[in-house]
Structures are given as C-alpha cells and as structure tokens.
Amino acid sequence: MKKIRIRTSTEAFYSYDILVGLNIAKLADYIFKKYSDRKIFIITDNNVKNLYGNKLTDSLKSFGANVKLISFKAGEQSKTRQMKELLEDRLISSGANRSSLIIALGGGVVGDLAGFIATTLFRGIEYIQVPTTLLAQVDSSVGGKVGINHPSGKNLIGAFYPPKEVLIDTSVLKTLSFSDYLNGLAEVIKYSAVLDAELFEILENKSRLLKKLKLDVITEIVFRCCELKAKVISKDEREKSYRRILNFGHTIGHAIELLSNYKIQHGYAVARGMAVEADFSVRLGLLSKKDSDRLKTLLNKFGFETDLPKNYTMEDYLKAIQIDKKSNDFGVNFTLIKKIGSAKINVLLNENELKTLLMFYDLR
Ligand SMILES: NC(=O)c1ccc[n+]([C@@H]2O[C@H](COP(=O)([O-])OP(=O)(O)OC[C@H]3O[C@@H](n4cnc5c(N)ncnc54)[C@H](O)[C@@H]3O)[C@@H](O)[C@H]2O)c1
Ligand SMILES: [Zn+2]
C-alpha cells in the first residue's frame, strides 16, 4: 500500500491521505479500527452496492460497527438536487448526526453527490472517498471538488470540501465495463500529456498490458496520477489559475459532450478534445507536429477517435465553446501543450482566432 499526502494548506482540515493499493476485503477492518466510535453511512449506487457495498456493510456489521448502507439508481441522472434531498432525508431519518461518517463508495457520481451532501449536512460532516471507477480513482475523488447538476448545466451547484481520506483499491476495476475503464484512461493520458513525459512513455510502452487491465501496471499508474493531481492541487486548491493545467482537452471536449447531448462520454470527448487542442497548439507554433502525432498515436492505440465530430457546424462549436466556464468577454481560455509533458495555461483565443483554427476541420 502506498500513501500520498495532500497538503493544500497548513490547516489540518485541508490535508488528507490518499492510500493506493488497499484491498477492498481489508477495507472493513481498516475503517472499523479508525471510525468505530461513530455511525457510518455508506452511500453508493445500485451497481456498486451489489458488487461491493453489501459485502462491506456486512463485514463492518460483523465487527460490531453501527453502519447503514443507502443506495440510489446508478448514473448521471441521479446527480440532482432532488436526489440530494432524498438522501438527506434518509440520512436524517436513519439517525445521522454531527459526528457521523459518510463513505462515498462508487464512481464520480457517488463521490460528487455524497461529498456534496457531507458538505452541508449539519454544516459539514466528515466523509471518505472510496472510488471504484478509474475516472474516480485518478480524478474526481482527489481534490475535494463536490457537487451536483442543475437542469441548465453540469456541476453548477457545488463546493470545495476535502474528504477525510481517499482509499483506493484498483482490483475493483476488474468489474468495470471496458468503456468506463477507457473513459478514465483518457484522463490518465491527459495527466501525462500536460505534466509527465515519463508517464506518457510508460503508457506508450505498456498500452497492451493496460488494455488487458494488468493490475500492477494500473496500480502504478493510478498512484502516479494521484501524485500529479495532488501536486497541482497543493499549488492551487481552488482552481484560481495553475489547476487549469488539468483542463487540457476539456474546452473542446466539453463542447463535444454538450453537442452530442452527452451521448459521447466525458473521457471519449476529452480524448478528441486533446487531439484537436494539440492541432491548435501546432498551428499556434507552440507544439511540434511530431509531438502532436505522438499524442494522437497513443490515443488511437487505446481506440480513441482523434478528430472533431463532423456532424455539427462551425456555429454549433463556437456556441458550445463560449458557454464553457473558461470563457470571458474577450475570448476563451485554453490550456494547450508545448511538448509532451508540458503545458501552457491561459492561452486566450478570441472568436476570430477560433474560427480560423476551426476552418481546418471539414465541418458541416
Ligand atoms: N469532482 C471532480 O473533481 C470531478 C472530476 C471529474 C469528473 N467528475 C464527475 O464524475 C462523474 C463521472 O464519474 P464516473 O465516470 O465514475 O461515472 P459513474 O459514477 O456514473 O460510474 C460509471 C458506471 O460504473 C459503475 N461502477 C462504478 N464502479 C464500478 C465497479 N468497480 N465495477 C463495475 N461497475 C462500476 C457505476 O455504477 C456506473 O454505472 C461525473 O458526474 C463528473 O461530473 C467529478
Ligand atoms: Zn475531465
């Protein structure tokens, strides 16, 4: 088991450990030893409940813990204000109090929703992240961003609220669908492209093993990504500037997601977004064509598409990009790359510049 400590401030509240390599079978033991003095609420979705939630609850009960599992229907459609209310009602009617502990067991949806509930319930109770998708293990469980969707947009209601700790067992990824696995892998490729050329090389050399879900390789990679995200966050916890380095591929990626009406999953959209933003980087003279080709080759190795979907117009794209959170009156801020493993944040592109860059795609 390897440990990373996130210290985003001198205050203990904002510091927490990420443990990678903890076996889910030993999780109950670990949690019981640390938190048996309080009521424990495991919040999870119906899939993860059947796979791991019930077992964890039963083990904790067998040790004598005061534990209750609360589940909801899996999927992004559950990340709503209504669901937040329903879960709060369940928690309160089940006797939750100021010193209770929430365990967010699941993917990013569970982590965001349960974490956000913990933020405001009794003015904030402690919670632990136990992420079970690759995306949640390398991204959403680390950094303390929690929240829910609003009918007019994703993640519009939320907070920065650090977990007590993040406990990661990569072996649970064995039951994940391959498409959900790849969805997370796109973020792994992103970390390497903006921050870690050595990780990029590992991904190039071990793509075959990664596609086969070779656990020791995945564990190493998850650990490395958590370390990278931890470093970024400790420099800029509240996404004022430097944390934007993690937005590479996301401005175009979000536009693709939005235009597809979320039929294209986040990671797949970000993969295409990275390829297109690498094109932008080359055209703006920031990146060599050779490095851009290397990135696309790696993305292709995992089966990602690397072009802009052609079934939308230039206007569609411009509109979708403008409403991205990274836009301001003067244009849109992109995070681009300078070479593999190194990025440039706050590259402001105005509408005309964007139009010129988008002209290179044969759009409808
Ligand atoms: N807070 C952040 O910083 C942050 C960052 C990135 C993404 N997110 C959010 O994360 C969410 C997406 O997360 P996600 O991709 O994990 O989706 P998800 O939570 O919906 O999980 C995807 C699917 O996998 C299932 N699942 C989870 N673990 C499993 C396992 N071990 N085996 C089998 N099935 C399993 C789930 O039930 C679900 O059906 C989005 O809502 C996004 O906004 C948040
Ligand atoms: Zn992302």
Strand order of the largest sheet: 1-2-9-6-5-3-4
Q: Under the CATH scheme, which class of the largest domain?
A: Mainly Alpha
Profile the largest sheet: 7 strands, mixed
What CATH calls the topology of the largest domain is Dehydroquinate synthase-like, alpha domain
- Secondary structure tally, helices: 14
Q: How would you classify the helix and strand content by structural class?
A: alpha/beta
Elements, N to C (H/E): EEHEHEHEHEHEEEHHHHHHHHEEEH
Question: What's the architecture of the largest domain, going by CATH?
Answer: Up-down Bundle
Count of domain modules: 2
CATH superfamily of the largest domain: Dehydroquinate synthase-like - alpha domain
Mean pLDDT: 94
Low-confidence stretches: none
> Quick one: overall form?
globular
Number of strands: 12
The set of bound ligands, ions and cofactors reads: nicotinamide-adenine-dinucleotide, zinc ion
Task: Explain the overall architecture.
By secondary structure, this protein is of the alpha/beta class. The protein is built from 14 helices and twelve strands. It folds into two domains: 2-173, Rossmann fold (3-Layer(aba) Sandwich); 179-358, Up-down Bundle (Dehydroquinate synthase-like, alpha domain), CATH 1.20.1090.10. Helix content is 48%, strand content 20%. Strand 5 (101-106), helix 4 (108-120) and strand 6 form a beta-alpha-beta unit. Helix 3 (81-93) packs across helix 4 (108-120) and helix 11 (266-283) runs antiparallel to helix 12 (289-301). The chain binds nicotinamide-adenine-dinucleotide and zinc ion. Zinc ion binds at residues 187, 250, 266, 270.
